[in-house]
Amino acid sequence: MAVYYLLLISLAGLGFFLTGNRKTQKKTAAYLAVCLFVLTVFATLRYAIGFDYFSYRSLFDRNASMTAKEILQAYPYEPLFHLACRAIYLCGLGYQALIGAVSLFVLSAGMWFLYRHAALPWMGVYLYITLQFLAYDMNLMRQAIAVSFFLLAYPYLLGQKPVPFFLLVAVGGLFHNSLWFASVLYFLLPKKHSLKWYGCLVVAALAAYLNFDRMFACAKPLLPDKYAAYEYSYFWNASTFSYVVPAGLYMVLIFLFRKRIASETRRTIYCSSALYHFLISLFITKHFILERFAVYPFIFSLAAIPEIIASYQNDFYQDASCQDKNSSSCKTAGKRAYYLVMLLFVLYGGAYFLFAASKGFHHVYPYTSLFDKSISVPAAAS
After folding, report:
1. In the Cβ-directed half-sphere of 317, how many Cα atoms lie within 13 Å?
2. What is the three-class DSSP state of 138?
3. What sign has the CA pseudo-torsion 354, 349, 44, 287?
4. Structure pTM?
5. In terms of residue numbers, what domain contains 136?
């Protein structure tokens, strides 16, 4: 665990001192470039990290021996990842090169998102690690690529430009089909609903939850064949309600601080995404595989939380009780609010990180590198 603590403290600390109070585009770009380099090396050098590490290695070896035509026939709905495996093999490179290429693409998309949409980039990097997006990326490579395309499509969600949005979603879905299901968020997230509508949604979700087993038994024959392979696996198991608590707390925090989000469109997107993330997390207590869909609305936490914190930084001197905005008492009051809110979300992220580590989230704790291959290859993957 020490390597994770070192990574977290060094990158977040560097960002806080470099871009914390007075960020500039040059400083922000330089800082995120450093993060991109460090995290890419960290992710690329991993060994036996993630439940699917050896499964992906077997998949790479299998794809390496197939022609492009055979790959398209075998994987007609998700061919791009398999074609990428074949392309890397044809370049004379191996499985670890695939990991490096995927890590570079995924982290580049993540750092670009933070550069464009996180008011406090260092906080975005902190949350990227503590809220388990890094862990997620190191386990589920194909879906990590799909989530990256979703991040790249965010400006078009924000601006309601359907053509480029759905084009990116279509391409990302060819790596992992879950993104196609998540495309419905284009219509749900930016739309402002009444409290009555949200109340009906919660009631409907609870009714579905109570009758989930019956409903799922009816829907199961309609699921793609690949999901049948997850039956009786780790991802098919029910999760405990302890996974719902962080999602519920995040939803409460976003709704409590929603007025600190300046743009009404962003406010609606962040509040709606927090609610949908909570509802999906509730169903994870039935089947953990549904976590695949929870990541899409939750990814906006990387922009929502930094914007809330930054709003306090921006109005140090907006306290109505202050007559002299330049007085030391006004400055002290404003800074106190800023640091208290920052501390609140730092503690939230830290608690989430410790909780995930204690649960062995996505089998990425503790970290093992290529320089320590003490973990043997499972017989099924050899």
Report:
1. 6
2. helix
3. positive
4. 0.88
5. 2-381
